[in-house]
Amino acid sequence: MVFVQTILLKVALDHRPSKAAEAGVPFSSLNGHDAERPYNFWQWRQQRPFWEFLLYFVTTVGILQLLFGTSTFFVSILGYLALGIEATLPIPQVIANYRNQSCKGFRVSVIFFWLLGDLLKGVFFTYSKTPMVFKLCGLCQFMFDLTLGYQYWAYAEKEGAIEMKKRRSMQIS
Q1: Global pTM?
Q2: Which CATH fold topology does 69-172 show?
């Protein structure tokens, strides 16, 4: 899985639009409200910083695992961090949709399968002897998925009304 994700990162970096075309891509800010990140984290223009960061990150985590891998506390902290990151993955999409007041470029099938996957995960966690933190993180992620579903519905209605007004004005002219 890590290998495939690395290949996907390489493909995504190879096929990024140029800086001049950035305003027209679906995943950039449509209204210029992109927040500045410290050191432009993960917004670098060249590929080298991405690969350097991944190398440093993997090396650091690998060394920590070698040093503290037998510590229950370390493994628990690592697990909680992983759960927290996974539970909050939809947040950037929710924020982008809210800022743009649109879900343009975001497919309904993605929302559907996120909801389905998180629902099934929640059912599994409920009926198995899973620690409460898994259940809470699963619930949190499901709530973000529901928020995305609501945004898709609400913004589609808004975009539909705008499109209807455009058609009416064209018919009158």
Answers
A1: 0.69
A2: Monooxygenase (1.20.1280)
